[in-house]
Design a protein that fits this description.
The protein has 198 residues and is α/β, with parallel strands linked by helices. The chain has a domain of 33 residues. Helices cover 38% and strands 11% of the residues. It contains 7 helices and 5 strands, in the order H-H-E-H-E-H-E-H-H-H-E-E. A 3-stranded parallel sheet has the order 2-1-3. The longest helix has 15 residues. It is globular and about 65 Å long.
């Protein structure tokens, strides 16, 4: 629902293809299951995180191409280790500061990014992000934003896996509930008011 959003990963990869993955690993000289530990934080994003990683572990191990273990760490241990590059694979969550596609891209791709990632793409950093930011009309920025997503789907410096949902529960006498979450899932409390109960 954010202007400029595209399904670049799905458009490029569609469904998992274990045969193709096995071929790629074989071409790289890797003929046995890849041993991998995926790290997540146990206390920062909620209890669903462990279940998400267990699902990933099951999917990857079921392919026969991976031998995945998962390890949870408290945030105060996890974040410094992630910043120091101690994890090969780890999961992070993201809550945007404002409803604009730039807030889902630049924090992960700009120099000195949130993840501390060494990934750099001159087309993204020197051309597309600055071009998109100069557009006050965010619809006009869509082409640059879509190109960024296509490059990320090709290079895969990050892999978006889940998008959470937000819900609002209210009694019958509360009005404005249908407008309380905007298209970016930002809570707009000013839309809520007391009405008349039945």
């Amino acid at each position: 629902t954010i202007t400029g959003h595209s399904n670049s990963f799905f458009n490029k990869y569609e469904q998992p293809d274990p045969k193709k993955a096995k071929s790629i690993l074989g071409d790289a000289g890797i003929n046995k299951p890849v041993k991998l530990t995926m790290h997540y934080t146990t206390d920062h994003y909620g209890p669903a995180t462990k279940k998400e990683f267990e699902t990933l572990q099951q999917q990857l191990n079921a392919s026969g191409l991976f031998d995945v273990k998962i390890k949870g760490e408290i945030w105060n241990t996890f974040r410094p280790a992630e910043r120091e590059g101690k994890y090969d694979v780890y999961g992070m969550g993201w809550f945007p500061d404002f409803p604009d596609a730039d807030n889902f891209l630049a924090p992960f791709l700009d120099e000195d990014n949130f993840l501390g990632s060494p990934y750099r793409n001159s087309t993204i950093n020197d051309e597309l992000i600055p071009t998109s930011r100069r557009e006050a009309d965010r619809l006009s920025a869509s082409k640059s934003i879509e190109k960024i997503q296509d490059i990320v789907a090709e290079d895969v410096p990050v892999l978006p896996l889940w998008q959470g949902k937000q819900y609002i529960a209210a009694r019958d006498d509360i009005t404005g509930v249908e407008w309380a979450l905007n298209s970016a899932s930002n809570l707009q409390l000013w839309e809520l008011a007391r009405g008349v109960s039945d």
